[in-house]
Design a protein that fits this description.
Blueprint lengths: L2 E2 L13 E3 L9 E2 L2 E2 L2 E5 L1 E5 L7 E5 L7 E5 L2 E4 L5 E9 L4 E9 L5 E4 L3 E3 L9 E4 L9 E9 L5 E11 L10 E4 L7 H4 E4 L1 E7 L9 E6 L3 E6 L5 E2 L5 E11 L6 E9 L2 E5 L3 E3 L8 E4 L3 E2 L7 E9 L7 E13 L9 H4 L2 E4 L2 E4 L4 E7 L4 E7 L4 E3 L7 E8 L2 E8 L2
Parallel strand pairs: 1-9, 14-17
Antiparallel strand pairs: 2-16, 3-4, 5-8, 6-7, 7-16, 8-15, 9-15, 10-14, 10-16, 11-12, 11-13, 11-15, 18-21, 19-20, 20-30, 21-29, 22-29, 23-27, 23-28, 23-30, 24-25, 24-26, 24-29, 31-32, 32-35, 33-34, 33-36, 36-37
């Protein structure tokens, strides 16, 4: 039996985000028309339509037989105490098709958690891709698991793609794409997010910044707030870290102008408040990024960290706005804080292929937004640290020299 080892961000008592890449979770590799690393427990598994890439998986239920499923051949080691999320993209082909996600014990036959079926009983879901998430699971001890996808009833023909398993993510459903949590017919933001003086909050498919969905917020008070729900907040690890958050906002065309700002909360206390951004649809009809300042935590760990969006609207008419791409960034302490030393900031450049120093020499480091160091090198003046910055991904570049230290968040489209 193969076992996929988890990736630990820090070897300490409380861990940060832990990604468990599901082997062939994107179903891109196959043999003889059958996706590799997956086994059908009942039903027929073949290559299917793709949400992303070239291939997905098609599970055709047996006629007259319920509980059709496919199980991933690998075993994944979950860490005690970290909230765990299993997600997949699903494309049903007929009304009243059903889908379910499960974590199985390492024997592959004993159910551990999940199995609640999403019923695809609305025409808007049929022959379109929809993201679902299994009920949250927090292991009481370290445990090895397997991943299973179910067609719970007979005769269903359903496509699956992009299966992901993650523990303690920085945000849950930050892209606003999840349609359902387990078998809930209630849209998931009622559980994943917490709101105050917003009613209703609803999913929209017309105004979004990325993906296919955003959330529409109708305020009912002069001060409204939106943030991650208590059970879904990131648990910080036992290391001093920089945290910085952002969320994208678009004002509705019929809304009065409103003020927006972001707060960073650590261990249920507000620790940083961003600048106020006034949005008036007459002058700004697009998406606006609302950012928090950077906050450096201590190394105690175990508490939560999250971003809160605040909307102030003091008029008699209440603001209506959309939110998308709710992001929490994290990096080693003091690496997200940009030095005020203009000499450092003006003496390095970043391109898609590397980081170049001008008239200074120093140490150049590249981090991802989870705080993992991806590259480090002593670089002389007029030399370059070669590094391939992937499109659509953000990084932190940190330059340390005798004149000081500066960091820059970079990304390329």
């Amino acid at each position: 039996m193969k076992k996929t080892l988890l990736l630990l961000l820090l070897p300490l008592g409380v861990l940060g985000q832990v990604n468990h890449p599901v082997t062939n979770g994107d179903f891109e590799t196959s043999t003889g028309g059958v996706p590799d690393s997956w086994t059908a427990g009942l039903g027929t598994l073949t290559v299917g339509d793709a949400y992303a890439g070239a291939n997905g998986a098609l599970l055709t239920s047996s006629s007259g037989s319920p509980n059709n499923n496919i199980i991933n051949d690998e075993t994944y080691s979950l860490t005690v105490g970290l909230p765990t999320y299993l997600t997949a993209w699903v494309k049903p082909t007929a009304n009243n098709d059903r889908s379910a996600l499960r974590l199985m014990q390492s024997d592959g036959t004993t159910n551990l958690i999940g199995g609640q079926a999403v019923v695809w009983n609305n025409a808007e879901y049929i022959d379109t891709w929809n993201k679902i998430m299994m009920i949250q699971y927090t292991p009481a001890s370290d445990i090895d698991v397997k991943v299973r996808l179910d067609n719970p009833i007979a005769n269903d023909i359903i496509n699956y793609d992009d299966v992901q398993l993650v523990q303690n993510p920085l945000t849950v459903n930050g892209d606003m794409e999840i349609q359902f949590l387990s078998n809930s017919a209630t849209t998931p933001y009622t559980q994943v997010y917490q709101k105050n003086q917003i009613n209703p909050i609803s999913k929209v498919t017309t105004n979004f910044r990325s993906g296919r969905h955003a959330l529409m917020c109708n305020t009912v008070g002069a001060t409204a707030t939106f943030n991650q729900g208590p059970a879904y907040r990131h648990v910080r690890e036992e290391a001093a870290m920089d945290y910085k958050g952002s969320i994208w906002v678009q004002l509705d065309a019929a809304s009065p102008a409103a003020d927006f700002f972001a707060e960073l909360w650590v261990d249920n206390a507000k620790v940083a408040t961003g600048a106020i951004t006034t949005i008036d649809y007459a002058t700004e009809s697009g998406w606006v990024e609302i950012e928090s300042p950077t906050y450096t935590s201590d190394d105690t760990g175990g508490g939560s960290v999250y971003l809160r969006l605040v909307c102030n609207n003091s008029g008699t008419d209440r603001a209506v706005f959309y939110v998308d791409d709710y992001i929490l960034n994290k990096a080693p302490a003091n690496s997200l804080i940009t030095a005020s030393n203009d000499f450092i900031k003006n003496n390095f450049t970043v391109s898609k292929t590397g980081v170049s120093l001008k008239s200074l020499s120093g140490n150049v480091q590249v981090f991802d937004l989870l705080g993992r160091r991806l590259a480090s090198k002593q670089v002389r003046a007029q030399e370059t640290l070669d590094f391939n910055f992937e499109e659509g991904t953000f990084y932190i570049v940190k330059v340390s020299a005798k004149e000081g230290t500066a960091s820059r968040k970079v990304g390329f489209n």
